[in-house]
């Protein structure tokens, strides 16, 4: 089979050989064994399930929470000639049925599914008739309540094993402590423990923590010293724009990226950065998943992430080409209080959470014993204004209520606009009464999207606007006008989050220790771990990170700030020792004050004398020092 895998790798990806533990994972899952692969960012996770999926008969179900990445991978696979499909929130029932039926009829090698879709009756019913080669769980740490990004929907994956007991499971993650790795295997009902670990060590990556109270000034200094493409991570969307603009004013080509931007604008900015038209991407943690830019020379965190896992994953986007790169964390004393506030905001008091739950019921006019299955759009701003609530605390309360099973809070519905041209192609071309703007929008839609005459297709209004040199509102109004004329049928984009009640409204809210206290403790521990990392200036940074993930090494990296500082101290001590021994080389006793006549500072002199005394190279009596015992 190895030759088959190599042939597929060469045919579809153009590579002659696998990297690291890729082949070991592929052979393990292909032989039918439940498999957990721990591979750091940039380790080539997708190859480990895409190659065996092509090789094996049937369809590989890939569970992943990232809709944008899901769409991107499906598109890339289709370009390579591999039949792939995806099911995610925002699709109509008809679209889901069509996708699943195509899989059942055969030919589809990879079916990407968001975790929220797994428990739907439609999906489970169709699953019975689907030949499944194996099940891949990407971002597998999300299934562990001990993980840094637990998602309750992931717990539904185990139900797939009940329907398809013979299908082995491949779990993949870039960040897992030994405790989380064990829990992943338990939650996914592994028949036996089977873990493949790729070393988390990045020999070409220098980890640096720089203490500073003026982070933007320090950022500019670092950018002036380290050439090449860079990513700068910040916490807030507003800060993204502010820092990018400041860099531009200093003639450093920069742009910014966050989840609040329109899709087309995000794509355009990523393209500019990818093509080196912009050197620096200032971004929130929404940026980075699935990016393929190997020559990033620098990743700077202006704001400290709330976990080692998040930091390691984001920092690991530097230097994927194997050449020297830097991951810099800018640290100030203020960061500790920011992280502590993050903990309190992530876990509001239980009374506050119950109050938010009640306010939702008043907002949607839901009585006790009612609401199960009902879905409502949710606008955070007006809700908080009406009930005098803080948005950050409301967001956290809704996520905790989601984790506890009271409701589902969908913050990124991704219900893109859809368009169907009702008129036939010939009828459309015979129309003479269309305005110039209407003609431009239809022509661009036809260029960008296929199948508009036969069925509804997802469209991106912002992309059409960009290509037509119009505003998004102009494109929206044009499509609405065309729809009113029965030329097209246009379903606008649903941008607002929504809330679905998973059970009838109850009088009291109960949050179990596993939902609240245990996870609060875990967050506190993770925050303390990143604080310890940032403030420990005595242990090699790489060793600290590797130790956190259960990997020990006996040697220092010799390129982080701690190692470089230690090497400088070693050089200073060596020079101090040389000068002291030079003064004493006449084999006569000398007064300690004679040693002070050297060009050494008092601290280096004292340390060197102490070391020489300990090693019995010099001897001291009173204020006299000599190479020989007195």
Overview of the structural elements:
This protein has 630 residues and is of the alpha/beta class. 45% of the residues lie in helices and 15% in strands. The protein has 25 helices and 22 strands. A seven-stranded parallel β-sheet has the order 3-4-2-5-6-1-7, with helices on both faces. Strands 8-13-12-9-11-10 form a six-stranded parallel β-sheet, with helices on both faces. A three-stranded antiparallel β-sheet has the order 14-19-15. Helix 7 (157-163) links the parallel strand 5 (132-137) and strand 6. Helix 2 packs parallel to helix 3, helix 14 packs across helix 16 (391-403) and helix 23 (561-583) crosses helix 25 (602-614). The protein is elongated. The mean pLDDT is 89.
Essential attributes:
6-stranded parallel β-sheet; about 625 residues; 7-stranded parallel β-sheet; elongated
Helix and strand arrangement:
Elements: H1 2-13, H2 22-30, E1 35-38, H3 45-55, E2 59-63, H4 67-79, E3 84-87, H5 93-105, E4 110-113, H6 121-127, E5 132-137, H7 157-163, E6 169-173, H8 178-187, E7 195-197, E8 205-211, H9 215-225, E9 229-233, H10 237-249, E10 254-257, H11 263-274, E11 280-283, E12 296-301, H12 308-315, E13 325-331, H13 334-346, H14 350-364, E14 375-377, H15 380-387, H16 391-403, E15 407-410, E16 417-421, H17 425-430, H18 436-448, E17 457-459, H19 461-468, H20 472-484, E18 488-491, E19 498-501, H21 517-535, H22 541-548, H23 561-583, E20 590-591, H24 592-595, H25 602-614, E21 619-621, E22 624-626
Parallel strand pairs: 1-6, 1-7, 2-4, 2-5, 3-4, 5-6, 8-13, 9-11, 9-12, 10-11, 12-13
Antiparallel strand pairs: 14-19, 15-19, 16-17, 16-18, 20-22, 21-22
